[in-house]
Design a protein that fits this description.
- The structure holds 2 protein chains of 2 kinds.
- By secondary structure, chain A is mainly α.
- Chain A is built from 11 helices and no strands.
- In chain A, 75% of the residues lie in helices and 0% in strands.
- Chain A has helices spanning 2-25, 43-49, 54-87, 92-102, 105-118, 125-145, 150-161, 166-195, 198-204, 211-220, 224-244.
- Chain B is mainly α.
- Chain B has helices at 2-29, 43-48, 52-82, 89-94, 103-114, 119-126, 146-170, 173-182, 187-215, 219-224, 232-241, 247-272.
- In chain B, helix 3 (52-82) packs across helix 7 (146-170), helix 7 crosses helix 9 and helix 9 runs antiparallel to helix 12 (247-272).
- The chains are: A mainly alpha, B mainly alpha.
């Protein structure tokens, strides 16, 4: 009985935040001390789906930004990690990939901002993309490092011995073995970019209005209903990923 | 040639930005760069240790330590008391749910749940525990960072539990328990001298990593933190965005010290744990 209670409590504590977000996104008034205030309305959702609404534009921008960042980070990180695993001896090469990853992104942005200003990248979408790559790329390198083991190396050598050049090695030996991991890394980089707020706000100077920026903006404007709607939009893709395959959300990153 | 290009890609994508970032901040903090630079000086570094920086570091350490410790206690308690529950596929899967919430959204939700006008205050009112909004205890934007800690714990304890469940199985701790028990060891001995040391050793790098992450947290303290003292990331940003330009070198000094702390901790972790770690 008590174990069922524990299970129920855990489930409830996880479900309440989602329920509250959803509730607020369908509400326009939540007066104290009512727990549920009527009327429920689809007003915000209808506005969101209107062509040209700022939240729809913001959602589109976030998708484009996260897809681009994760594509570049996954591809770059995949091959860079191969070079680090095969051609370097000191483990500090890998350890150094952790450095940009553990510093708070917003502090990293503060330290890098001068260069973005000099290159006129501050407040631009390419600037934010580049800044997010500085976090996601090292993550991808760390992620893939453990993939380059003896088995993969033997497979590569086999294809090479049979006359395959690097392109053939990649197509016939590496990619078939790495397909699943590439997908996982792609989605994890997507989520890092999708969830990112501090760095995006600082480098984007509020001009690159991703969904996380909109949440904070609506909170600052004391509009919890639109903030909740933006929150629901932010939570949806990871929830879908969880439904499709939970590995997309959590994969043990190999280490040295 | 390809080898060199790929290593260059790593250097350009990872090490160069880091070097440039730290380099600029170091120069700014010692008066060698920036609009108001007046030549080499350690004044900004010295200022750090007499003001809000130390307070902020202590506050950040408190938040990080309390969050990590609470998350560990909750996940260990669940592991040892309700492990079998998580054999249910649905409950195990539910542990992944908090991972789908971005920190900024979680901070917003925690505010809507625990603030004076939040859901739990309304529940307390409806149940007759309080008769006006002011009677509800300050759980967000409070001096002890209760709101921030709750948000951190909510985000991380399911993840810790997932790792602990895997570790428990991987280290065959139930079999160790059976063997120790048959040799006459009591429950407390098995727990404190066999199982906990194995789990804590396996979890230590992860705990250290999350301690650093929590210390540098930005979005959650921004919404749920009080106006003073600030968490370190919020303080750095605030110093940078104040109207007084003289605060900018101070902000860079703080950033340098904070980055050094992160890099130092990670380097120490890797030097200490040469074998595979559960990061």
């Amino acid at each position: 009985m008590s174990k069922r209670l524990v299970a129920g409590f855990i489930l409830l504590s996880f479900i309440i935040p989602f329920g509250l977000l959803l509730y607020l996104s369908f509400s326009t008034q939540w007066h104290y001390p009512s727990i549920v205030s009527h009327p429920f309305t689809t007003e915000q959702w209808a506005w969101f789906l209107t062509a040209g609404s700022e939240l729809l534009q913001s959602a589109g921008l976030s998708v484009v930004l996260s897809l681009s960042v994760s594509l570049v980070a996954t591809t770059g990180g995949f091959f860079a990690s191969r070079a680090i695993a095969y051609y370097t001896k000191s483990r500090w090469w890998l350890v150094s990939a952790y450095f940009p990853y553990v510093i708070a992104p917003v502090v990293f942005a503060v330290m890098l901002n001068y260069y973005f200003l000099q290159l006129n990248l501050s407040g631009t979408l390419p600037g934010v993309m580049l800044a997010q790559l500085f976090i996601t790329f090292p993550y991808a390198v760390i992620f893939f490092y453990g993939f380059w083991n003896r088995k993969i190396r033997d497979l590569e050598n086999l294809v090479s011995t049979m006359g395959g050049d690097f392109k053939v090695v990649v197509e016939d030996a590496i990619l078939p073995s790495a397909k699943g991991l590439l997908a996982v890394c792609f989605f994890q980089c997507y989520l890092i970019s999708w969830f990112e707020y501090g760095l995006t706000q600082f480098i984007g100077v509020g001009k690159v209005q991703t969904l996380t920026i909109m949440v904070y903006r609506y909170v600052s404007e004391a509009n919890p209903y639109l903030a909740a709607l933006a929150g629901v939009l932010l939570v949806l893709p990871p929830l879908v990923l969880l439904f499709v395959n939970r590995k997309f959300l959590l994969q043990k990153v190999w280490s040295v | 040639m390809t080898k060199k290009l790929l290593i260059a890609l790593f250097v350009i994508g990872c090490l160069v930005p880091l070097g440039l970032a730290i380099g600029y901040s170091v120069f700014y903090s010692v008066g060698l760069a920036g609009l108001l630079s007046s030549g080499f000086t350690f004044d900004h570094w010295i200022t750090l240790f007499g003001g809000e920086f130390l307070q902020s570091i202590l506050y950040s350490i408190w938040v990080a330590a309390a969050s990590t410790l609470l998350a560990m206690i909750i996940s260990l308690t669940l592991l040892f008391t309700a492990r079998k529950l998580f054999r249910s596929r649905n409950l195990y899967r539910a542990l992944f749910l908090p991972l789908t919430i971005p920190p900024i959204v979680l901070a917003f939700v925690i505010f809507q749940l625990y603030s004076g006008a939040g859901l739990f205050s309304r529940l307390a009112f409806q149940l007759g525990f309080i008769s006006e909004i002011q009677q509800f205890p300050a759980l967000v934007q409070d001096p002890y960072a209760v709101g921030i800690i709750m948000a951190h714990v909510f985000l991380v304890f399911p993840f810790f539990l997932l790792v602990l469940l895997n570790l428990y199985e991987h280290e065959k701790l139930d079999q160790i328990e059976a063997v120790a028990s048959s040799l006459g060891a009591g429950k407390r001995t098995i727990l404190f001298q066999l199982q906990l040391p194995v789990l804590l050793r396996g979890m230590f790098p992860l705990i250290a990593l999350y301690f650093i992450f929590f210390m540098g947290a930005y979005e959650i303290p921004l919404l749920l933190g009080q106006s003073s003292p600030h968490m370190i990331s919020v303080l750095i940003l605030e110093n940078l965005q104040r109207y007084n330009l003289a605060n900018i070198p101070v902000a860079h000094s703080m950033a340098v010290w904070y980055a050094a702390l992160c890099i130092g901790t990670i380097s120490w972790l890797f030097s200490r744990y040469r074998r595979k770690v559960a990061l």
